[in-house]
Amino acid sequence: MNIKAFEKKIYLSSPTMHGDEAKYMMEAYETNWMSTVGKNINEIESRIAELFGMKYAVALSCGTAALHLATKLAGEKLYGKPKPGRGTLYGHKVFATDMTFDASVNPVAYEDGEAIFIDTEYDTWNLDPEAFRRAVEMYPDVHILVIVHLYGTPGKVAEIKKICDEHQILIIEDAAESFGSKYLLDGQWRETGSLGDYNCISFNGNKIITGSSGGMFLSNSKEDAEKVRKWSTQSRENAPWYQHEELGYNYRMSNVIAGVVRGQLPYLNEHIAQKKAIYERYREGLKDLPVQMNPYDKDNSIPNFWLSCLIIDKDAMCRQVRDDYKAIYVPEHGKSCPTQILETLLAYNAEGRPIWKPMHAQPIYRNNAFITVNGNGRAQSNAYIDTGKITDVGMDIFHRGLCLPSDNKMTPDQQDRIIEIIKSCFI
Ligand SMILES: Cc1ncc(COP(=O)(O)O)c(C=O)c1O
């Protein structure tokens, strides 16, 4: 193949700075607000609350911290304060999205709870409402759900919310990857990150806008916002000395980091437009291959197109096996697999990534329940009877899908080369 390797690496999704970030960081330095208080924090909290149509935004050190405190709030609301040494979810289960980054669900374990993983649907690659309904029937005592909008694509929120309303289930919304994505709920366009009872976003270095790190908790409840603010600054009580009645955390965002976020905010729509153009170019360029782009609901959602992904048609997959650490494949004429494409991209100095490996297949969560549209997703086969009922959508997408280089600084020419590289895998 006559394609040259990239001299400079093409990344999956790298930070894109514009200049103002340095100005606001310097402002923090020059005014000596080199701390977890200051103008940058105040500015981004009020601007983001307004952007999301929410009353309160609390800036935190990362999205994982926001998810942790959101999970703790939900646990305390339902089960009260735990005994010393125990998490708020001790002895309780939580429904959770299965195909996601582990940061979405680890806070359930931080709080001593047990996640029940719900399988994925093919229409948006998010939590399947049908499988969720099965889970609710099987576990009527569970009253918390963690939802995610994978790769910036909103999930089937209306269906999910309906089930939650019927069964008094609180929603923790992980919008870490979907800042700027919109969803049509009850006839109104809403930001993802404003759809749950507890809402979280991330400014991790690879996100659509970044602070280099950072996250936020969003809420319409003054009480919840104040709790998160208190917990995130070591839970100090109102006394002249350091008095503590509940566990505290050092989770507040730095005013320097907030300066980066402040500088990035005006560029959100520009970044989304660039990511959308990348998605469209892949869709057009790959249309003759036996692959599909990551799908979305055109009528009810506007994704931020954070990562472009593809999934290979079943009959165009060459043989590929993965153990816990390695993958091998057998090349085959006219076919390919994620491992071959990822290795080939890497050989040309471009970075892709496998789809998030589902949580129920992670060794750390091997004993947690996993619910599919057919009910219990564990132990589905039978040595003596062909049940014909094996479904595991998450593992299927993990097996056949991959994330493509989606960096907004990639030029159309570079992207065309990536497309040619992918095509070469199917020869
Ligand atoms: C789906 C999802 N949830 C949570 C996180 C955690 O955010 P952070 O890295 O800011 O802690 C990330 C990304 O990093 C993510 O992709």
Protein described:
The structure is a single chain. By secondary structure, this protein is an alpha/beta fold. It has two domains: 20-266, Type I PLP-dependent aspartate aminotransferase-like (Major domain) (Aspartate Aminotransferase, domain 2, 3-Layer(aba) Sandwich); 268-365 and 385-425, Aspartate Aminotransferase, domain 1 (Alpha-Beta Complex). The protein has helices at 20-30, 39-52, 63-79, 106-110, 129-138, 157-166, 222-232, 255-264, 268-285, 338-347, 393-400, 412-425, and strands at residues 56-60, 93-97, 114-118, 144-148, 170-174, 182-185, 188-191, 198-202, 215-219, 291-293, 301-302, 309-312, 319-322, 327-330, 353-354, 370-372, 375-376, 401-403. Strands 1-9-8-5-4-2-3-16-17 form a nine-stranded mixed β-sheet, with helices on both faces. Strands 10-12-18-15 form a four-stranded antiparallel β-sheet. Strand 4, helix 6 (157-166) and strand 5 form a beta-alpha-beta unit. The model has no long low-confidence stretch (mean pLDDT 97). Bound molecules: pyridoxal-5'-phosphate. Pyridoxal-5'-phosphate (PLP) binds next to helix 3.
SSE diagram, text form:
Blueprint: H1 20-30, H2 39-52, E1 56-60, H3 63-79, E2 93-97, H4 106-110, E3 114-118, H5 129-138, E4 144-148, H6 157-166, E5 170-174, E6 182-185, E7 188-191, E8 198-202, E9 215-219, H7 222-232, H8 255-264, H9 268-285, E10 291-293, E11 301-302, E12 309-312, E13 319-322, E14 327-330, H10 338-347, E15 353-354, E16 370-372, E17 375-376, H11 393-400, E18 401-403, H12 412-425
Parallel strand pairs: 2-3, 2-4, 3-16, 4-5, 5-8
Antiparallel strand pairs: 1-9, 6-7, 6-11, 8-9, 10-12, 12-18, 13-14, 15-18, 16-17
Helix pairs in contact: 1-8, 2-8, 3-7, 9-12, 10-12
The chain binds pyridoxal-5'-phosphate.
